[in-house]
Design a protein that fits this description.
single chain, globular, 6-stranded parallel β-sheet, 13 helices, Rossmann fold, alpha/beta
Length: 434
């Protein structure tokens, strides 16, 4: 039985440079075709997943088994057509991972080929937003405590937020606090209690009244003079405050969200920020909600699709302080945006000849075909983990059973605006009317 060849640089990770690819010598390391412990662990975890995961898995079944195993070696110099051989050739990958410019810390400089860029957590381009870390949510006796206490205690949200804020400040990442406060005018003049169910609930329970103990920050989560305290949001969306102005002033590209509550303010703000072009990351164990079902629905179903990543506090702190290479490496564990383990990287193929680069994850118990993950799906790398912006439970429905090619990427991008014709085929947008 032939072994796949895993190409590893004899000189270790190559330095980042902004001028294209750099030649490197490689030695061949035979990799037996067997299930890794990570794959076995992944399958075990998938069997024990909760109801939310089961529903998603049923909605997105895995690909059907291949007709027969085969060895695939990509010849980047032959355009779009991969070559299939009965046995491995002597050389497959002869170039190092594209170099990345370091003049802005870990953040990747924009390049012509987007597949080579990884949006990492550069402290100068990252901001932490802590939403509603106040007594009414987080302290016994608070107006919402009886609703929130189950998830706040489960995740130890106060301790997690305190640790997160302290370490984030130390790393030089700006910290912004987004609280609520309601005045008489909000209800007597603006009649906010008539706007929505959550506004009615906050009104009747006298939550977050301006100047009250309930609207004050939790004793363990007090802002410092170096932090930013935002204007109060009057519903569920912190983006409808002065948050955008502060993010623009700070030069923020990566917005990391924690606090309260998962399915309302955190989710609404994350959705809005994503629509405005920010890379949003939710920290699942530093977030609470008014009930466990609400928390689970956001963390496991909604966040993985609307965000760039879902992480835990330890993972984020490791990423902002990481000193290792930001380029994916063979042996890295691939993590989906739902924090599901997809598998281990067996091969990294760089973009060349117009064909996109990709990671190859070998088939195993969970996925019955090799999976070819485009490099432009990679969002972060830290401590041997590579994060991609797609849930693991959706991967089996994606066209990733073959390496991406120039033509396949062109098909996915669709037609250019100038040749597309009517946007909706038979109709154009109405536009402004007099």
């Amino acid at each position: 039985m032939m072994h796949r060849m895993n190409m590893v640089s004899e000189n270790g990770p190559q330095p980042y440079r902004s001028q294209g690819l750099e030649e490197a010598k490689f030695r061949r390391v035979p990799t037996p075709r067997k299930q890794t412990s990570a794959q076995v662990e992944t399958h075990s975890a998938s069997r024990n997943a909760g109801d939310c995961s089961s529903r998603l898995r049923n909605a997105f079944p895995s690909r059907s088994p291949p007709a027969r195993p085969r060895n695939l070696i990509k010849d980047c110099h032959t355009g779009d057509s991969p070559r299939f051989h009965g046995r491995a050739r002597e050389s497959v990958l002869t170039t190092a991972f594209p170099a990345l410019e370091m003049n802005r810390g870990p953040t990747v400089t924009q390049q012509t080929d987007h597949a080579t860029s990884i949006a990492s957590f550069d402290p100068r381009r990252t901001a932490l937003l802590v939403i509603d870390p106040v007594n009414d949510f987080l302290s016994e006796g608070g107006a919402a405590w009886e609703m929130t206490k189950s998830t706040v205690k489960k995740n130890d949200v106060v301790a997690q937020l305190r640790r997160l804020v302290t370490a984030t400040r130390k790393a030089g990442v700006p910290v912004l606090f987004g609280p609520m406060a309601y005045t008489e005018e909000d209800y007597a003049d603006a009649a906010l209690q008539r706007r929505s169910g959550i506004n009615r609930l906050m009104f009747e329970a006298k939550m977050f009244l301006a100047g009250s103990w309930g609207a004050d920050f939790h004793p363990d989560l007090q802002p410092t003079d170096a932090d930013v305290i935002l204007q109060p949001h009057k519903g569920t969306d912190v983006f409808e405050t002065d948050l955008p102005a502060h993010l623009k002033r700070l030069g923020t590209e990566q917005l990391v969200i924690a606090g309260m509550t998962a399915n309302l303010c955190c989710e609404s703000t994350g959705r809005h920020a994503t629509e405005h072009g920010y890379h949003v990351t939710f920290l699942s164990d530093a977030i609470g909600a008014e009930s466990l079902p609400a928390y689970e629905a956001s963390i496991h179903i909604n966040y993985p699709l609307i965000a760039n990543a879902v992480m835990e506090v330890d993972e984020f702190l490791a990423a902002i302080t990481a000193t290792d290479s930001k380029a994916p490496q063979a042996g890295d564990t691939v993590i989906g945006s739902d924090r599901g383990k997809i598998g281990e990287v067996e091969e990294v193929v760089v973009a060349e000849g117009g064909n996109p680069g990709y990671l190859r994850v070998p088939r195993g118990i969970v996925f019955d075909k090799d999976t070819y993950i485009p490099l432009d799906a990679v969002t972060h790398r830290a401590e041997g983990r590579v994060y991609v912006n797609i849930p693991k439970l959706v991967v089996g429905k994606l066209p990733w059973a073959e390496p991406p090619t120039r033509s396949s990427m062109a098909e996915k991008r669709g037609p250019a605006a100038g040749v597309a014709g009517p946007l909706y085929r038979s109709h154009e947008p109405t536009g402004p009317r007099g």
